[in-house]
Amino acid sequence: MNGWHYIGKVEDIPLQGARIVAVGELGNIAVFRSHSEQIYALADRCPHRQGPLSSGIVHGDKVTCPLHGWTIDLASGEALGADHGCTRPFAVRSDENGLYLQLSSNDG
Amino acid sequence: MTTSPPKHLLVVGNGMAGIRTVEELLALAPNSFHITIFGAEPYGSYNRILLSPLLAGEKNKADIITHPLEWYATQGITLHVDNPILSIDRENKSVTDSRGQSHTYDTLLLATGSHPIIIPLPGQQLPGVVTFRDMKDVDTMLELAKEGKRAVVIGGGLLGLEAAMGLLKQGMQVTVVHLLDILMERQLDAAAAALLKSALEERGMQFYMPAQTAAILGESQVSGVRFQDGSELPADLVVMAVGVRANIDLGKAAGLHCERGIVVDDQMQTSDPHILAVGECAQHRGMVYGLVAPLFEQGKTIARRLAGATDHSGYTGSTLSTRLKVTGIDLFSAGDFLGDAACDTILYQDPSRRIYKKLVIKNNIVQGVVLLGDTVDGSWYMELLREQKEITPFRQQILFGRHHLGDAGHGATKVADLPATHQVCGCNGVCKGTIEEAIIKKELTTLEEVRAHTKASASCGSCTGLVEEILAHTLGGDYIPAQSKSLCRCTPLTSDQVRLAVRDQQLTSVVQAMQQLAWSSPDGCPSCRQALNYYITVFYPATIQENPADRFVNERLHANIQRDGSYSVVPRLWGGTTTPAQLRAIAEIAERFSVPEIKLTGGQRITLLGVKKEQLPAIWAALGEQELVSGHAYGKAVRTVKTCVGSRWCRFGVQDSEQMGVLLEKQLWNSWTAHKYKLAVSGCPRNCAEATIKDFGVVAVEAGWELHVGGNGGIKVRVTDLLCRVESMEEVLQYSAAFLQLYRREALYLERTAPWVERVGIRWLQQQLVEQPDYRQQLCAEFIQAHQCLDDPWSTRAQGKLGTQDFLPLTSIPFRSLENVA
Ligand SMILES: Cc1cc2nc3c(=O)[nH]c(=O)nc-3n(C[C@H](O)[C@H](O)[C@H](O)COP(=O)(O)OP(=O)(O)OC[C@H]3O[C@@H](n4cnc5c(N)ncnc54)[C@H](O)[C@@H]3O)c2cc1C
Ligand code: SF4
User: Fold this and answer.
1) B529 and B439, same domain (yes or no)
2) Do A22 and B805 touch (CB under 8 A)?
3) DSSP secondary-structure letter at A15?
4) Residue A41: in which H helix or E strand, if any?
5) What ipTM, to 2 d.p.?
6) A-chain residues within 8 Å CB-CB of B449?
7) Which numeric CATH code is attached to A4-102?
8) What is residue B89's predicted lDDT score, i.e. its pLDDT?
9) Which of B577, B604, B644, B648 to mutate to test the pocket of ligand 2 (most atoms within 8 A of CB)?
10) What predicted TM-score, i.e. pTM, was given to this entire model?
11) Domain check: are B88 and B211 in the same one?
């Protein structure tokens, strides 16, 4: 298997918002759609206290965790500002049919 | 020269001094030592100073831990927590831990701090008698404060008063017992101590002094305290805060030279050249310190020595200042504040404003200072004292502060003239140069940011003024002072300017507002998006097209996110009343959806805790069938109207408070406000519904109703101001809607009614609402109109009118993995 999984259409994700993909034992992966129509995917767990990033406010290419307000870079998963920590990013691509999420060969 | 393998540094004590020394060493010479730390406490290092705000509920544990366990791992330090060292074998250069394991060292650093002093009184070992030194003590006090009512604090020094204030904040009745009739006698003279005492009494603290404790009473648990003169005080908790004594146990047993502390030289070396000591356990040039400031210098000295620097003259001692960390009371003291016959005293006293300033001066050099009520110049006086500066040129104006001297110089140091090595923050050991570097490199523009990045002024706060000056000086024209702080980084406008722009420029959407007001970011940030969205809902309720992405998750999903990412659901029970059918429905739903916990809230509601996001729409539909609507327990919105049973049932009741509450809640519910908004109605002046700590409180009297506004029962309790008295229920309804609408129009987003009422003043509110009936009616009508634009958010979503698919996963990928998501 090449590791790319079809997950749905771009329009299924609210603009400046996110939806989750439940990936069995891997847990939830949050797929974000930014203001400028970029799609990003991160493990749905803030590096601080595991807050659900998918429920945060998406602004620019960042998301702010709903639990304690850490701001995470959507592309790298790194905490921004004075905070330190990183959540795992995943690759996403799209074609005319919709969006695909890559789970690395290690994952499955 | 051959390179030898790194030597082994073993540190005993994971407190403030030990960890600080290790940090200095890592900064100066990383990888030069293998480092092992033993700590008797079960956590990473924490800021002991902040135990006082922890006890007062102003900070939580996570806030005060400075070095979480991961930090040690990333620095390659081996940490043993909860494992005290029991002995030192100097001959073999090894130590034995509490598990019987021995560990060798090349250099041993003792940083064992102090023991709290326990007065050997009968009953001193009873449960309920505690000291105030570590996190465990705070846990014990918080536990006892839950059940017990009365606390006695023995000791009227800094520690005792901070403990007493914390317990007072936890709702206990607190009496401070002190041996002398002067509080904090090591820092204050009699006049300042008397002023401090009355300020604390005003906050509810009681004093029993001078008094000498003779025994602690109780059988299996403490029940009181007896004094030398035979008198007694009842107590459920006794705090002994009578001072500390250096913890020299290990050093003494190992035969190191000890007096009151472990004696060290200027290089912080003990009588054994392989053993160093730092912090409160060390005695240097006859001094044993009990404050943090000396440890930074001491730690630096040790780090330089270990890193092999030879040009260093060592540690020569510290001048200390003290500040009381009690919110709302400013007190600063340093040096010799009593003076002798050769000293002059310069004094400024304004009893009604509770300001007291005293400088002790000898040969035109400051020897000591006491400041109460106005401490902004504390750090300046401290600097004059430490540097032994001649004050002759400005002696006449000295009590008016540094700013009064103007720009002429007069020998007073200005921020620009301070050397980069000048230590600005004594609590966290941060120098001017470090702050400037952080401001420039990390592009910091606000005090909060400087605090977050450098920790300067983040503990006791006494250097806040100086940090702000450094910020202003470093940024020059870019600096925006705190009073007129911009809403966020996306705009230079303040929250109030944004509010007025929305109102006056007909800005009816967030996107439009950002364009028109020249936002600097493409789609804002959480702060401004939520504020703009709120102002627009207030001024354009009928036309706003809300974007759910501009709302915090609670308001987007209409449920309250919990720490584990689950949600709580709180149906509205009008006025705190319910019916068997509703209770049955709630019980049935809780069972059907396996809700883990049901709890009664302080606002007389039932909350279902631990609900999963994807369950929300189904739960709402089920609640909706029983006509239960959203309780808005999650939002910046009208929350609850709490009521007592009033004249319907209570033998004292003079009006039907229950009916009044239900009517009020039906009129006001489902409205967005600048911050959460709570109401209560009591059926008589006994006020069982606690209406006088609510945003809008109604208290029944024989002739009608009293309307109270601007109360708050949170961290900072504020009692309401009386707005007016009215006769009928209709008037109560009209006033309540008008007041709410005025608050919605005028207050800043996230400003609660308590600070807002303080800001605008109760007189202004009375002029608007009581003295102008037309305006009152207009506000009331405006509110009712806005209210009609809203549907119950739950039923709208349960009926699928708004995207409920967002609550569900996009898809699932069945998956078995070899590794977990990081
Ligand atoms: C409530 C409170 C408020 C305070 N407020 C202020 C303030 O406003 N300003 C100020 O300057 N100072 C304040 N202080 C004092 C300040 O906290 C101390 O000066 C500082 O913590 C001293 O640091 P230290 O490392 O020497 O001791 P500590 O921080 O006490 O660290 C010593 C550590 O060593 C551990 N230990 C002891 N023996 C062993 C052993 N045998 N093996 C392993 N570990 C051991 C102890 O458990 C402890 O964790 C306050 C103190 C308290 C308790
Ligand atoms: S406030 Fe008055 S009416 Fe209400 S329960 Fe208390 S005593 Fe009764």
Assistant:
1) no
2) no
3) T
4) strand A39-43
5) 0.90
6) 82
7) 2.102.10.10
8) 97
9) B644
10) 0.55
11) no
